[in-house]
Specification:
Elements (H helix, E strand, L loop, with lengths): L9 H11 L2 H6 L2 E2 L6 E4 L2 E4 L1 H8 L5 E3 L18 H18 L7 E4 L16 H7 L2 H16 L5 E2 L23 H16 L10 E7 L18 H17 L4 E4 L3 E2 L2 E2 L4 H11 L5 E2 L5 H6 L8 H11 L4 E2 L3 H11 L5 H17 L10 H7 L3 H14 L1 E5 L13 E4 L25 H9 L6 E4 L12 H10 L2 E7 L10 E2 L6 E2 L25 H9 L4 E7 L7 H6 L2 E4 L7 H9 L54 E8 L3 E3 L4 E9 L5 E11 L10 E10 L4 E8 L1 H4 L1 E2 L5 E2 L3 E10 L2 E10 L2
Parallel strand pairs: 1-12, 4-5, 5-6, 6-7, 7-8, 8-11, 14-15, 14-16, 16-19, 19-20, 22-30
Antiparallel strand pairs: 2-3, 9-10, 13-20, 17-18, 21-23, 23-26, 24-25, 24-29, 27-28, 29-30
Helix pairs in contact: 1-13, 4-14, 5-15, 6-7, 6-15, 7-8, 11-12, 15-20, 16-20
GO molecular function: beta-glucosidase activity
Protein name: Beta-glucosidase
Family: Belongs to the glycosyl hydrolase 3 family.
Length: 765
Amino acid sequence: MTYQDSSKPIAERVEHLLGLMTTKEKVGQLVQPFGWKTYEVKEGRITLADSFKEQVKDGGVGSLYGTLRADPWTGVTLETGLSPREGAEAVNQIQRYAIENSRLGIPILIGEECSHGHMAIGGTVFPVPLSIGSTWNVELYRDMCRAVALETRSQGGAVTYSPVLDVVRDPRWGRTEECFGEDPYLISEYAVASVEGLQGESLDSPSSVAATLKHFVGYGSSEGGRNAGPVHMGTRELMEVDMLPFRKAVEAGAASIMPAYNEIDGVPCTVNTELLGDILRKEWGFDGMVITDCGAIDMLASGHDTAEDGMDAAVQALSAGIDMEMSGEMFGKYLQTAIEQNKLEASVLDEAVRRVLTLKFKLGLFESPYVEPQIAEEVIGSEQHVELARQLAAEGIVLLKNEGKALPLPKDGGVIAVIGPNADQGYNQLGDYTSPQPPASVVTVLDGVRAKLGDVPDHVLYAPGCRIKDDSREGFEFALACADQADTVVLVLGGSSARDFGEGTIDLRTGASKVTDDALSDMDCGEGIDRMTLQLSGVQLEMAQEIHKLGKRMIVVYINGRPIAEPWIDNHADAILEAWYPGQEGGHAIADILFGDVNPSGKLTLSIPKDVGQLPVYYNGKRSRGKRYLEEDSQPRYPFGYGLSYTEFSYSDIQLSSDVIGIGETAVVTVNVTNSGTREGSEVVQLYVSDVASKYTRPACELKGFRKISLKAGEKRKIEFTIGAEQLQYVGQDYKQVVEPGLFRIMVGRHVNDTLSADLTVQEG
């Protein structure tokens, strides 16, 4: 059979297979049921569900979603879930049944969630993307993506629903943690790295998975920061900001893309033919697969109300360019009838099936549908991956304040009290899209501090003090007693994206874990958890204020998934570390920073406001947005690109190779960066460009380059950036990229509000 002959071109194999398929089999390739429902585990034995077997025989199954996903939504726990080896065996069993019991033997596309690690039991839990963004270390992230791809593919997962390339415009949004930040250039750099890392040199490699870019597009700019809310954005801004990371990732070869839930100017992205057809397919040349988000087609008839019923919604989606429906039933329920009733052209169905089959061939699933369970057992959660998680976490921690050099702490500095709801709650530091974890696999801040200082009795005290959201103050007395005995208080506050994993709760009066029938949820962040404020939840601030009255040195560590705006803490804490959700090795990474074994190098990729009333506060807004409110100016508390170090860096001698260039020519800007402090450290050198006057309004300045460098004490290095069309152009008349002649200000420095500048004139001709 031609389609089974690996020596034939993929296009030829696809057309041959397509010609053999019935309409029912074609529709089957476009549906993606929930994978965890296809099997059961009883007494260590994996058995396939009868419903899955019937579906395979009755037209087939194109893909499965979250086959190895474990979390409260799936109901898969540590007790009922599969080990890395068992997961690989289960996927092999699923594939074998599908291949051997369907008419044409088409393998199944196994799609998995891998936002910051494969969301399966045993998978390494890396820091969330917001933390990864704060590292400004694209190479390290590429290494992480290679590790995630290896862990996922070793169990049979062939496509991942990541990276998230949304540009955050309102951090009240619960999914802020899943994003890299507020700047499209920065996100674009990570976008390219993710495609290169996840997909490797070849999709059919046993260590590669297909990347799915999401959410296309504007998802991070929803009305009021509410998940999937309408987006109010003009075409020019959409092209310059939100589309840029997707375009760069498509150019890098991304294999799949996912439209967003939201609407833009009245059109849901799921059926936006201009986005999916004119721009994505025709203008950008994307030839990969388009898959919906979960339940997105249902929303057309019940939510957006742009479809009369399910049939109408399914036909609209497929006609607009959707190739596969994630986790829904609309395609399976309606598409064949739509063909039979002439509501849908057969050629439209064929085109979608063609793209799905092409991806399967590119992934090598027809030649290598099975995996080796022994490899999964060896690579998943390996020491190398755990060490990588620790390094990423450390580089993503941002030192926001260090009054009087309160940090680093001396290891012989007396008694330390580690206090707070996030001090010893492992799940609270992992972020959303995380599988259940054995307690020993997550290092909390308390664990990290104890490991750093050794097992000295009464040297490290602990009290939870309060919970994240709960208003109970019953733990205050115990927390204050611990703080009173200490020389330094490390106060670990923030938020939680931990869903109900059934781990019980903490006794606030003793700090001991306890199991209850009605464990309290501390979740105040994550998908679907949007907030009206950026203040700390519950009574965390009140507890900090009570502890401060004791006059102890107070170090605040934030563990959270969105910026926190708490002016009192900004003013009264001796030092503040923003750790975001740092993953399973977060406790070690935070302790490395606290005690100076690692010099902090993280920089903010989100502007942190003084108050939620300043929103939106992203740095690259238009010049015309105004200077201040009655109560306060419009500047954030901590600006984009900001982050302190235990050493000092100075910038000098900014120079341009030429201060006049023609359109199409380039200039090189150089600057000297000196470590003028007393210890080695890493600095993120940031390049910004300001178009002084333009035909259409522009942001005051935009990030156009960055470089993370390491300098020994006293070392000086000349850093250079090339300035050309890529850095100077914008979307001009007729929505075309243009470099206009005129004056540009080139700025290089440590953050957006602290730069040296030089003027560059661009001339015609």
